[in-house]
Task: inverse folding
C-alpha cells in the first residue's frame, strides 16, 4: 500500500512539471558523507594492541612451567671437619670419584666392595667413612701405590711405613686392612676402645705416646699421622671436596 502511494505521488509531481529527487536516490547513495576522527582511530589502535598483548600473555601463562632441578653445590671447604661423625658423601660418590681418577685400581677386592668396607667399619666405630676413604686415596696414590707399600699388603693408610725402606704392616684381607685404618683414626680422635678386636698394630703406640684424643679434626693429624705433614689434613679434605662433586 505504501509503495502504491509513493508511485501516485511521483506521477503527480511529474505531471505538474516538478521533478523531485528523493534524498535516498542511488546517485546520492554512491557518494556517502564520511566523517574521519583521528582520536577515534588512535583509540581503536590502542585497544587492538592491548587485545593482542593480552592474547600473547595468555599464551605464555598457558604454557607449562618447567622447573630446573636445583644445582647441588658441595659445602665450602672446612678445615674444622671432625674425624668422628656420620658420612656426608655417598658410597656411589666415593666409587665414581675413584674410577674417574683411576679406572683400574690395584686391589684384591672390587672397588665397590672396598667402599662398602669403609662404610661398614667406619660407621661401627663412629669414624667418618667418606673422609677416611679420601685419606686412603691420598696414602695409596689412588690405589696405584708405587711406594714402599704394595697393593697386596691390604694396607690403605701406610700403617708401619715409617720410612722409604719400611714396607709397613700386612693384613690377610682387605676388610681387616680397612678395620686397622679405622681403628688407627679412632686412637687419635677418641679415648674409646674399638667395638671389635684390635687389628691395628700401632694402636697401642698412639695410646702410649699420649696422643689419644689429640686429633679431633682431620687437620689435627698434621705432624701426628704424617711428619712434618704441614698440609696433610688439608690435602685429604681437598680430595673429599672432589668426591662431593660427583
Result:
Amino acid at each position: 500500500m505504501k509503495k502504491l502511494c509513493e508511485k501516485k505521488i511521483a506521477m503527480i509531481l511529474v505531471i505538474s512539471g516538478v521533478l523531485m529527487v528523493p534524498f535516498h536516490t542511488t546517485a546520492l547513495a554512491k557518494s556517502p558523507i564520511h566523517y574521519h576522527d583521528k582520536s577515534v582511530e588512535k583509540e581503536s589502535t590502542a585497544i587492538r594492541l592491548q587485545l593482542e598483548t593480552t592474547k600473547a600473555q595468555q599464551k605464555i601463562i598457558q604454557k607449562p612451567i618447567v622447573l630446573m632441578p636445583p644445582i647441588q653445590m658441595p659445602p665450602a671447604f672446612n678445615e674444622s671437619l671432625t674425624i668422628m661423625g656420620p658420612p656426608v658423601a655417598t658410597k656411589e660418590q666415593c666409587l665414581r670419584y675413584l674410577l674417574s681418577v683411576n679406572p683400574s685400581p690395584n686391589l684384591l677386592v672390587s672397588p665397590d666392595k672396598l667402599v662398602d668396607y669403609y662404610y661398614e667399619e667406619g660407621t661401627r666405630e663412629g669414624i667418618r667413612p667418606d673422609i677416611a676413604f679420601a685419606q686412603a686415596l691420598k696414602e695409596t696414590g689412588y690405589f696405584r701405590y708405587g711406594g714402599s707399600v704394595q697393593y697386596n699388603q691390604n694396607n690403605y693408610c701406610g700403617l708401619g711405613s715409617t720410612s722409604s725402606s719400611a714396607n709397613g704392616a700386612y693384613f690377610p684381607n682387605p676388610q681387616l686392612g680397612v678395620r686397622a685404618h679405622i681403628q688407627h683414626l679412632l686412637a687419635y680422635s677418641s679415648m674409646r676402645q674399638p667395638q671389635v678386636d684390635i687389628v691395628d698394630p700401632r694402636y697401642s703406640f698412639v695410646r702410649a705416646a699420649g696422643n689419644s684424643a689429640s686429633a679431633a679434626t682431620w687437620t689435627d693429624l698434621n705432624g701426628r699421622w704424617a711428619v712434618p705433614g704441614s698440609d696433610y689434613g688439608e690435602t685429604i679434605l681437598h680430595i673429599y671436596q672432589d668426591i662431593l662433586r660427583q
The CA atoms of residues 220 and 233 lie 7 Å apart.
